[in-house]
Amino acid sequence: MLGFWYLYIVYAFVLTYLILGLIISFETTAAMSGGKFAVKWIKEHFSYKEFYFSIILFYPLLLLSYFFLEYLPSFLTCEIRCVFSLDSLFEELFNSK
Predict the structure, then answer these.
(1) Which of 70, 72, 89 is nearest to 81 (CA)?
(2) Quick check: 28 and 62 in contact, CB under 8 A?
(3) I want to staple 38 with a disulfide (CB 3.0 to 4.6 A). Which of 20, 28, 30, 93 is the partner?
(4) Is residue 51 part of a domain?
(5) Cβ(42)–Cβ(27) below 8 Å
(6) Number of structural domains the chain divides into
(7) Counting Cβ atoms within 10 Å, is residue 52 exposed (0-12), middle (13-18) or buried (19+)?
(8) Whole-angstrom Cα distance, residue 33 to residue 22?
(9) In a domain? residue 72
């Protein structure tokens, strides 16, 4: 019985991590490529510290989403659309602070 609840809780944590991580990483990748809705969404939902913590927490998923949404298409079409730069993203989002 204990094994069932342990696996249930682990499964719930993994799914929560994946769902939240994919949402935040897709929005971050869209903001890096200049998406105005993504920039607006991040500014509405995160402060600087919250967004920085989210980036650290979901960094593997951010790299994965950048690879599939930006790097792989730019490699196949030989057209660079955006560069992976979190420093410039933070400056763009939180330059007023």
Answers:
(1) 70
(2) yes
(3) 30
(4) yes
(5) yes
(6) 1
(7) middle
(8) 16
(9) yes
